[in-house]
Amino acid sequence: MMSSPRRPIILTRRKRPFQRSEADETQNKSYTASGARSVSASAQDGIRVVDHPTRPEALVVVVPETAGLQSVLDALTVKRKERGTPGPNKFIFLSGRCGSDDEVKALFQATSENKNRPEAGVAGNDQTLPNSGCTCKEKFDGCVQLQEPQHTEEDPSAVKGPLSERPPYSYMAMIQFAINSKKNKMMTLKEIYNWIEDHFPYFRNIAKPGWKNSIRHNLSLHDMFIRESTPDGKISYWTIKPEANRGLTLDQVYKPAVEPAASSFPQAMQVCYQQVPNESSVVVMSAPVAEVEEERVCIPFSEPCNSEQKEILRKRYERISRRKQRLVPLSNEEPVLLFDSSLVSTFQEMECDLKPLTKGAAQLPPHPASHRSRGRARRWMKGTSTA
Amino acid sequence: MMSSPRRPIILTRRKRPFQRSEADETQNKSYTASGARSVSASAQDGIRVVDHPTRPEALVVVVPETAGLQSVLDALTVKRKERGTPGPNKFIFLSGRCGSDDEVKALFQATSENKNRPEAGVAGNDQTLPNSGCTCKEKFDGCVQLQEPQHTEEDPSAVKGPLSERPPYSYMAMIQFAINSKKNKMMTLKEIYNWIEDHFPYFRNIAKPGWKNSIRHNLSLHDMFIRESTPDGKISYWTIKPEANRGLTLDQVYKPAVEPAASSFPQAMQVCYQQVPNESSVVVMSAPVAEVEEERVCIPFSEPCNSEQKEILRKRYERISRRKQRLVPLSNEEPVLLFDSSLVSTFQEMECDLKPLTKGAAQLPPHPASHRSRGRARRWMKGTSTA
DNA sequence: TGGCTGTTTATAAACAGTTAA
DNA sequence: AATTAACTGTTTATAAACAGC
Ligand SMILES: [Mg+2]
Ligand SMILES: [Mg+2]
């Protein structure tokens, strides 16, 4: 599977298909993505890797519906070696029926128009690659997302160009991409609309008008988006709360501090451990050392792991490492990723770079028996169980 | 109109009717409340005030559909004088067709069953008055809410007992009522469900099962609701973030520090003013002096007011005074209610107790030309308008 | 396996205030 | 200048996907 470390949760697939305008209502069935996970390793047959017509650093990868993820990765590895360093760092994945290589190139030349829009490109820092729904973005840290729309044979009239497929990003993510594309990290509502329409034509062409309502809803709802007014109060700009801004853009989801290696296990993540008093537990946390992910996870087994248990561990580690990267100061109010100490060697076997932690963990509460949560900080009461 | 001061926004009516289970789907039209605001002062005719069968401190008030708010208040005033001090402090308002007094009493005897529920009543501090949708709650501070369901003649089969009408509170409000009803201010999810079903039979009888999803959604969504686990991690309790807990309960929405007076203008609210540098503006804020509502409002006229303008002012003042009472420290990051200084005398005429403010306002930004917001803090940028 | 609990995202809508037509 | 329509912003409600127990 090779899922990537540190891929933010806000980039995971949105849950469900999207509102389409009435005109497209009839084709809804063909979109309800369900096969996105049936990724099987197969031959590279049918995969075409095409240079982007205008961007030397970008590749367009056409993936037939039958191809599995492994084939895609193999094809990319070949191309990467072929191109040498610095190789391409943008990968636009198209799946489904696509024309010839030239047609594919034409697709992108015809649609990189962000010039006749009033506000677009003002800051001169915009990303100009339009992105489509069945697109995968591969970043330098190995982040890969794939969606394979299930084309049904019975509607040949479907204008299912990749430019009209819904992108795999949530509204929150797209708004961040948009705002961070500006040098000064601020945008008016209209600019956000236009940036999204320019980079994801789905919203201009197919989505029901309600998508703008959703954008506004997201701006208001999430604390990370803050509205600031010019001193004269005439204009409102939307910004991202600096301490919450991870600088995500379409071009670069994460800037790794370490060169990504071939290992399928994340090495870039710095992991520390410390004995918890009176417990046979170990604290495992993400870098930097003085900070921890606001997450506490208890692995229920402490014996030397068998391969099945190792797999569970690895999956959990990977999932956690993809979590929202809001790092918080270490305290017992913000519990941390917590495993039994007997697993230290297991982690080390798995190439997880465990280092002893030197501060903070002394105040950690005792190892609770169970847990539930999906990324939220968990709080414990002081005394014994109260009714 | 006589709306009450300091009634929190979370107690305003929710926006739309509610999900009903399939069985009731046909009667939806008769609920879409629209006449809730047509409150006219009329005679007290038809209003019946009945003692609660089991609670000496409670009254049941049956309000015919034709009766206006003033009639209700008159009837209550009469009853209150009649009962003396300490008079009733719980008022259950029923509107629409109700039977005889005895039938009304029977209604409440039959439905105050919170005994064969596992968790209900454990803390011994529960409110036990069931509440229904067409209910008004009058509190000692004069808070009144009224809804008059629009009964349609064409469905006599409607089982529109008050016990099956949707309450006028938002989920967030009901959850607060529930949690604050416990001495220790914590409840499990199940207890919250049960409290709500016990006090608002609508949810047990009529609402679609999705209402529980909505409760969970609200618990997760709102930062004010915090989940705490027992040290052994076996039980999760939901609590209210202390600094956000206004102690709202069904019994007491607000504990006034001042005896409510007969004036229709809120006197309990302490209001201060200060000149803003280089502006003919005045800051008006709620008590305590060192804190302000996180709201800035600019009234666009500065001449001595005519009666129409006064009415606008009064309405705006009332609306603001009902806002979410999250008071924040005074700073230029948290602008304040702001009027032109020429209005000070107008406010004083209106019995608004204006006092000069002595601290903090010096950092206030200049009076902006316009504004938009509904209760949120507004931020201004430092420099001049940026593109 | 299925139900319960908890976290998120998506969508629609009510409603208030502002600006443009 | 008054009315209206469109735009902007804040909330609440509802459904659903999904994870973990
Ligand atoms: Mg926001
Ligand atoms: Mg919460």
From TrEMBL, chains A, B:
Where located? Nucleus
Q: Which domain of life is it from?
A: Eukaryota
Is this entry keyworded Transcription? yes
Question: What are the Basic residues biased-composition ranges?
Answer: 369-381
Q: Does Glycosyltransferase count among this protein's keywords?
A: no
| Keywords carried by this UniProt record | Activator, Cell cycle, DNA damage, DNA repair, DNA-binding, Nucleus, Transcription, Transcription regulation
Query: What does the record give under GO molecular function?
Result: DNA-binding transcription factor activity; RNA polymerase II transcription regulatory region sequence-specific DNA binding
Query: Which Gene Ontology cellular component annotation is one that this UniProt entry carries?
Result: nucleus
Q: In what residue span(s) does the Fork-head domain sit?
A: 166-244
InterPro entries, per the entry: FH_FOXM1 (IPR047516), Fork_head_dom (IPR001766), FOXM1 (IPR042839), TF_fork_head_CS_1 (IPR018122), TF_fork_head_CS_2 (IPR030456), WH-like_DNA-bd_sf (IPR036388), WH_DNA-bd_sf (IPR036390)
Describe the task this protein carries out: Transcription factor regulating the expression of cell cycle genes essential for DNA replication and mitosis. Plays a role in the control of cell proliferation. Also plays a role in DNA break repair, participating in the DNA damage checkpoint response. Promotes transcription of PHB2.
**What is the protein named?**
Forkhead box protein M1
